[in-house]
Amino acid sequence: MKRIFISFLLILIISFYQNIKAFGYSSSPEKFISEIIDEAKLILNSQDSKETKAEKLSVIAIKTVDVKGIGYYTLGKKRKEITEDEMDKYNKVFESYFLKSFTSRLTDYSDPKITVLSAEKINEKYTIVKSMLVKTDKKPEVKIDWRVYTKNPENPLIRDLIIEGLSLARTQKEEFSSILSSNNNDINALFTKLEEFIKK
Amino acid sequence: MRLKPIKTFVLTLAFSLFCSFNSFAEEKYTANECFEKLSRGTLKFNMALDNAIFKPIAKGYRALPVPIRKGSSNFVGNLRSLLTFSNNILQGDFRGATNTASRFVVNTTVGILGIFDPATKMGFEKKSREDFGQTLGVWGAETGCYFVLPILGPTTARDAVGMIGNVFVDPVYQVTHNTETDMVIGNDNLQEHNYFYYKGADAVDFRSKNIESIESLQNNSIDFYASVKSLYLQNRAQKISNAPIADKDQDDSDWEEIDNQ
Description:
Helix content of chain B: 55-70%
Oligomer: heterodimer
Structural class of chain A: alpha+beta
Order of helices and strands of chain B: HHHHHHEEHHHHHHH
Number of helices of chain A: 7
Largest sheet of chain B: 2 strands, antiparallel
Structural class of chain B: mainly alpha
Number of helices of chain B: 13
Radius of gyration of chain B: 20 Å
Shape of chain B: globular
Number of strands of chain A: 5
Radius of gyration of chain A: 20 Å
Strand order of the largest sheet of chain A: 1-2-3-4-5
Helix content of chain A: 55-70%
């Protein structure tokens, strides 16, 4: 009886440990990115529909990307001028927009081969993880750098993707700024554009 | 009468460029608009033209067997390296110039007119292309305002002057447009139209390598014009400083504020 109880306990402990591993990511930025890439590859290589792939990728993004931080950054100085209610609305709309944009860019790729090359700590808050999307017959190789926020070393978060030296966060910020400036700095115009994109 | 608007345009460009010459200028990722409404219209026109002509040609080119595509890409790239060489020299980058010249000599001879790329295997690394707009940037000319040219696409006052400058420092242009040389050598390959074939082939090669990325940008932008502008300016800035944006001490004041909230 004692043996059965011990075996049962062991199985429980092992399965609990494996579950923790499945949901947690490494604190080393290089390993953190490698784990995300491996997880994303499994999803992209699966037979799931595009919608299911997007849903699964969104779950990864929510856990590993600083969506709220990117949202604030993207809004620029405008975030100081809007009300709390507008800010709440912005956070919600931005998250939906970001996840749709992020997953739709990724689901265009099937069987991507990305190799993590190295990591460079640029300061206490940021580490750049360098990787390479391997070239195919149709596409050239693409350098992808991941700007990882490491202020909390136990919980790294992605803050930017730099593709061939071009920052996606910066591009998005300039898009938002352009929409605001061509609409008398009206935040509602930005909401409308984001909502149109989400519904697309 | 017809020349007046062109003359005014060129003078405005040159004036805005030389007013902004500053040897201590830091490369910027942003630029003011020259004439945004017109530029937005021109971009739409360019995209329509791309859909109707350039994209189908690029798709057709991509259907060719890989060795043919790779060979023609290498051949055009090898010719284009001559413009990079001139600009390496003008920028005072003699190490870069030595690398470019070595690659050209090896690939033109061992690599059979540049169709193959043995230079990379021999350790002469393939580096980024240089043009006269980049050279002006290295010399300290500021970006100037941003606009979109029909067919040629996004540019800035500095890069537009650079495009004109390219003509004077590109050995391929000089050889194909020098009628005296043509008459002396009597070689058809040196006739002017071959320069345009070469430029066209280079453009098709570029477009075929970017079919998906341009499509993805169109599908995922809420303001395609602003995205193109941002990517163009970032790309030029990193080419001039020869460093990726991530490696630069970029303006992170917005991130700083968020971190301190």
